[in-house]
Amino acid sequence: MDVRNWPLERKMALPDYCFGRRYPVCVSLDLETDETDWDISEVALPDIAVVHELCIDAAGGFGNSGLLRLALGDQLPTVLAEMARLQPLFAGLGLQGPEPRQRRINFGASLSWSRLRVPVAAQGRRLVMELVTVAPNIMAVNVCIVVSALPTEVPDCLISV
Fold it and tell me: Is the pTM of this model over 0.85?
């Protein structure tokens, strides 16, 4: 059955297996000094992406930390102001302040959220990560989200009365 015209809330209530193929979208940065850098994913997200998982891994020397921001964009930012204009991946994720918010990330930190199933109006944009090291140090951060598109077709047996 075609469910393209269904409202978002009704599509999100469908069983998990209706969301089809899932794929990872990843960004990664290695910083060696006190600096700011950005990465953008090679893979674009669907118009309305459903984020099923978020994983963040950080490595570096003892006591190292940085500030991380995740957003959606079409181009790789080159200055902080460009990043500040992008739509956050998840509103409200991170330290209180303007969106996209910064999130402190420490050496050896690992964050893994599964079973999220969060709809994001990505409009074909890509995942953008900003990493700011707060002191001269070496830090490597990898971020991966697992996404799918919204369902467009479901088996008729799901809709039977």
Answer: yes
